[in-house]
Amino acid sequence: MESDSVVSAFNRYFDLSTRTGQSLEEIQHLRYQVYCKEFGFEREEDCPGHKEIDEYDTQAWHCLLEHKPSAMAAGCVRVVHVDAHDSITQLPMERHCSESFFDSAWRPDRLDRDNICEVSRLAVHGMFRRRHGETATPFGDIEALEISPDQVRVFPILAVSLFVAATLLCVHHRKQHAFAMMEPALARILRHTGLEFTQIGEIVHYHGKRAAFYIDSGEAYESIRQSSALSELCRHVESTLLHRPHPLPATTPMKAARPRVAPMRPAGLPGGRAWRPRPTRPENGYHGLRN
């Protein structure tokens, strides 16, 4: 299927919007459905009102993916920031997984706090993660929603569209250094789309096997813009999410501040390319982004 027809179908059936403040109920209900009911990452008694909420919700930019025909919340993601005026001074991964970080210059605790953020709480409703023929879900039958075949075929790009949206939010809010806790297998999948995350921590057991990853948001944005597979999706997300008729600047002013590698590591590779630690082999399991 050609990328333009995928984007056309995506536009027909799905809508992306930013959410903040008091408009997070749909997102919190979706996270409850995925993290509590479907995967058991959270206890039901810790989710009053069938909403999965934490203290970072008020310190983040949120994106909601809505399925237009059913008005269902199909997916969500947030970008957590820790600016000088914020009440919480550590990213979620710093609070929960800092002991797993490598001795790397790309650690969040070694970077300017105003330039870092964490992509987290990415979730896609189980209804839109089912393959053809897998009709039973925790929330009903896929046939009951009368989802047509051309809607089903765009489901694999829903999670990618949320990562694209998160990248655009990072660049829009001038956050150069973006982090995420994810499975190495998911990082490998994203690498094929142009989002090349660098693993900066050991695999830990945190709602499944996860590791800390880093990406330069400006480089990620440029890779997506130049990708034959994702450039049109990027333009569409940018125009709808940020209401921009033209692309964001090709580079960010923070570009020159990209950190160098830590001591005791190779200083560089031929051609001036920076050395990056090789990610570990991907593990089996749920390839979600949880933190």
Explained architecture:
Helix content is 28%, strand content 19%. It is built from eight helices and ten strands. The chain is globular, with a radius of gyration of 19 Å. The chain is an alpha+beta fold and 291 residues long. The strands form two sheets. Strands 1, 2, 3, 4, 7, 8, 9 and 10 form an eight-stranded mixed sheet that branches. A hairpin with a 3-residue loop joins strand 9 and strand 10. About 16% of the residues have low confidence.
The biggest sheet amounts to: 8 strands, mixed
How would you describe the shape? Answer: globular
| Annotation, overall tally of beta strands | 10
Helix content: 25-40%
Mean pLDDT value? 80
Overview features:
two-stranded antiparallel sheet; alpha+beta; 291 residues; single chain
Outline of this structure?
With 291 residues, the chain is of the alpha+beta class.
Topology:
Blueprint: H1 3-13, E1 14-19, H2 25-38, E2 60-67, E3 72-81, H3 92-97, E4 116-124, E5 136-137, E6 140-141, H4 149-152, H5 157-172, E7 177-182, H6 184-192, E8 198-199, E9 204-205, E10 209-216, H7 217-226, H8 231-241
Parallel strand pairs: 4-7
Antiparallel strand pairs: 1-2, 2-3, 3-4, 5-6, 7-10, 8-10, 9-10
Helix pairs in contact: 5-7, 5-8
